[in-house]
Amino acid sequence: MPWKESHVLDERMKFVGRLLSGEKMAPLCREFGISRVTGHKIWSRYQAQGATGLKNRSRAPIRHPNQVSFDVEQLIVRLKKEKPHWGAPKIRELLSHRYPNLKLPAISTVHCVLDREGLVKKKKRRRKFSSIAGYLSVPKQPNDLWCTDFKGQFRMKRSQGYCYPLTISDFQSRFLIRCEALSSTEEDPCYGVFEEAFKEYGLPCAIRSDNGVPFASGNSLWGLTKLSVWWIRLGIKIERIRPGNPQENGRHERMHRTLKLEATQPAGANLLQQQETFFRFIEEYNQERPHQALGMKCPAEVYVKSPRIYEGLPEITYPGFDKTLLVSNCGRVCMRRDKIHLSRAFANQPVGLSEVDDHLWEVSFMNYDLGFFDEEGRTFSPKNDPFGIKLDKAL
Fold first, then answer.
1. Distance separating alpha carbons of residues 18 and 43, to the nearest angstrom
2. How far apart are CA 368 and CA 224, in angstroms?
3. Cβ-count burial of 328 within 10 angstroms (0-12 exposed, 13-18 middle, 19+ buried)?
4. DSSP string spanning 90-110?
5. Are the C-beta atoms of residues 74 and 44 closer than 8 Å to each other?
6. CA distances from 202 to 66, 134, 214 (A)
7. What single-letter DSSP state applies at residue 204?
8. 386, 222 contact by CB (below 8 A)
9. Beta strands 323-326; 237-240: pairing state
10. Is the pTM for the entire model greater than 0.90?
11. Most trustworthy range by pLDDT among 62-76, 108-122, 133-147
12. Which of 61, 188, 201, 327 has a CA 20 to 30 Å removed from the CA of 6?
């Protein structure tokens, strides 16, 4: 019968003993369930080395031509401790930048070194998400799309307040444009952050966000806010992901994960100190951290500024319209004695009115037709999604 693994040495001794007693090789091999090649190999080892030759031999190669030297291993470990949240591909790329004359080990070798030193954190299996919504754009060039969101708030180390990081990144290059430590998610401070970004990097073609404040409002017509109307007036298209589907802004969310690991633990004593940490993170993320999806280039090597220069709000005129009226602070347009309620998001914005039929007026904002005002019935009927935002029912 075939040998059992736990008694291999004993079986080999029996096999050799019966050969020594004068039995033939072929029938013995058939009885023990092995080939004659194996039988002759066992007999040859016994003749050459005695009983020691019957023990199992290591299958490891005698020579290791690609074995990493001790010095290189120490460099890998040192870089990993310097960048504890970087994986093997990024550590190898950093090794090539700092030591250009060094013969680089393979990524798998770097991973093995880190694993052997206990520096690899085992990943949990994550549920695969479906692809992004079909109505969202797929940018090809830098500034085709910017992504924005508020990273989850966290408490400051020595104060009672919280930090709400507002982040902006370029979709195609992963370039981190802004990471601003704010004290809340209120709308007003966001204007300054975006305006500085527009002045420094130009205007994007579109901005993608979730459905939270201050980017969207569930109580407003078309889910618009003053901030999103400001973007529209600057000629920026609005994109919104579906509620509960963060994977539709996955690149930006992945950056948030890195931000949390490297720039929020531990938190700063106050917002000013935390902002200094964010500045250092932005510098490293853009200038030093390679990205596999970019061919191990850093975001700063791929990103270029937008040719669309920010020059403030353009003037809005409505040639060919019957009336041009200014929306009040409360979101209304006053026409004669009638008041048309639009949305507070359009406060202080001019709209154009055209009489399309007797006492029936079409209301427009820039190139977007908002709906119709029935002067006799004193009712406003909004159009469905004039801005192409693809509103969710939750809004």
1. 11
2. 13
3. middle
4. HHHHHHHHH-TTS-PPPHHHH
5. no
6. 49, 27, 21
7. -
8. yes
9. unpaired
10. no
11. 133-147
12. 61
What is the identity of the amino acid at 129?
F
Q: Parallel, antiparallel, or unpaired: how do β-strands 360-365 and 162-170 relate?
A: unpaired
Q: Are 361 and 369 in contact (CB under 8 A)?
A: no
Of the pLDDT bands very low, low, confident and very high (cuts 50, 70, 90), residue 4 is very low
R_g (Cα) of the chain, nearest Å: 34
Mean pLDDT within 255-271: 92
Q: CB of 162 within 8 A of CB of 154?
A: yes
* 339 contacts 367 by C-beta, under 8 angstroms: no
Average pLDDT over residues 165-179: 97
Query: In sequence order, which residues have a C-beta less than 8 Å from that of residue 185 and are 6 or more positions away?
Result: 150, 164, 212, 213, 214
- Tell me the residue length of the chain: 395
| Distance separating alpha carbons of residues 191 and 208, to the nearest angstrom | 16
Neighbour-count burial of 301, counting CB atoms closer than 10 A to its CB (0-12 exposed, 13-18 middle, 19+ buried): middle
Is residue 232 within 8 Å of residue 349, measured between CB atoms? no
> What is the predicted pLDDT for the residue at 393?
47
pLDDT beyond 70 at 350: yes
pLDDT confidence of residue 258: 93
pLDDT of residue 2: 52
CA 28 to chain centre: 65
How many Å from the N-terminal Cα to the C-terminal Cα in the chain? 74
245, two tokens: 């589907």
What is the arithmetic mean of pLDDT over 286-314?
Answer: 94
Retrieve residue 291's tokens: 């990205």
Q: Which two tokens stand for residue 305?
A: 């500024």
Q: For residue 390, what pLDDT is reported?
A: 65
Handedness of CA 21, 22, 25, 26 (dihedral sign): negative
Q: Which two tokens stand for residue 308?
A: 């669309």
Q: What is the pLDDT of residues 193-230, one digit of tens each?
A: 999 999 999 999 999 999 998 999 888 888 899 999 99
Q: Are 394 and 218 in contact (CB under 8 A)?
A: yes
List phi, psi (to 5°) of 302.
-105, -35
Torsion of CA 321, 323, 329, 330, to 10 degrees: -100
Continuous segment of H or E residues that includes residue 267: none
CB 193 within 8 A of CB 180: yes
